[in-house]
Amino acid sequence: MATMPTLFISHGGPSIVISDTPARHYLESVSSLMPRPKAIVIVSAHFETHGVTVVTDPRPEMIYDFRGFAPELYEMVYPAPGELELAEKVLELLENAGLSPSRLGKRGFDHGTWTPMKLAFPDADIPIVQVSIDPNRDAAWHYAVGKALSPLREEGVLLVGSGHITHNLRAYFSVMRQGAAVDPELAGKVTAFTDWFDEKLKANDSKALLDWKSQAPFAADNHPTDEHLMPIFFAYGAAGEHPQVKRVHDSVDNGFFANDSYLFQ
């Protein structure tokens, strides 16, 4: 069985599944980047817990964790199954790594999971196990979560971090809802931040990456809160010590909201 890569995706807003954008079309092509996964373990920025939690739900339902979007989005269903056996293995690996995981028997798919997976694997026939982030923990902790689960790649499991490379929602909604012009200074800060990540990832500079809040340019402007960046550290940690890194997508919405995606092999 081929060793699977790991993947970080910027999942966009819920409307990505109906919008004619480069980010949507990229997500529709994700399955062509790798062998067909036996199963998927996904860390979504919208699944926050104290510590790390693993969902054991065999039939996850839908979570429409958004307001004010197109009515059709609230009718969409992504009926991918869970997989208890895989969830138990995830729990065991995390426990062996000293991460003291918790289990959650019932939880649906939030939009950080179902919107990108609906585009990437529309048949919904690949089991998905969800793993949480902890917004109070740092990059190194999420890197360790990914590292603990890295052995699953040898079993055909795709490990996915679903967050966003930039996530300044105040600026985003000012542009979208109030008709404000894109601030070219902010757009420049986004480019500086995303280019820094690309450079450090390709150099495998884990020391700088895990200290991103101090070293990355304009960190607070791009991430007023940390939760949407934590999944990239999960995917990076899960890829092993010296991964090959490819930025497989880098479109930008409204001049500053970046949709970078990375494949780690």
What is the topology?
Elements: E1 6-10, H1 22-28, E2 39-48, E3 53-55, H2 84-96, E4 102-104, H3 111-120, E5 128-133, H4 139-149, E6 157-163, H5 169-178, H6 184-202, H7 206-210, H8 212-215, H9 219-222, H10 230-238, E7 245-249, E8 252-253, E9 257-258, E10 261-264
Parallel strand pairs: 1-6, 2-5, 2-6, 3-4
Antiparallel strand pairs: 1-10, 7-10, 8-9
Helix pairs in contact: 1-3, 4-10
Family: Belongs to the DODA-type extradiol aromatic ring-opening dioxygenase family.
Pfam family, one: LigB
GO molecular function: ferrous iron binding; oxidoreductase activity, acting on single donors with incorporation of molecular oxygen, incorporation of two atoms of oxygen; zinc ion binding
List SSEs in N-to-C order.
EHEEHEHEHEHHHHHHEEEE
- The overall pLDDT average reads 95
Report strand order across the widest sheet: 5-2-6-1-10-7
CATH superfamily: LigB-like
Fold-level CATH name: Protocatechuate 4,5-dioxygenase, Chain B
Termini separation: 15 Å
* CATH class descriptor: Alpha Beta
Helix content: 25-40%
Report on this structure.
It is a single chain. This protein is an alpha/beta fold. The chain has a single domain (6-167, 226-264), classed as Protocatechuate 4,5-dioxygenase, Chain B, CATH 3.40.830. It is built from 10 helices and 10 strands. It has helices at 22-28, 84-96, 111-120, 139-149, 169-178, 184-202, 206-210, 212-215, 219-222, 230-238, and strands at residues 6-10, 39-48, 53-55, 102-104, 128-133, 157-163, 245-249, 252-253, 257-258, 261-264. β3 (53-55), α2 and β4 (102-104) form a beta-alpha-beta unit. α1 packs across α3 (111-120) and α4 (139-149) packs parallel to α10 (230-238). The radius of gyration is 17 Å and the shape is globular. The two termini are 15 Å apart. The mean pLDDT is 95.
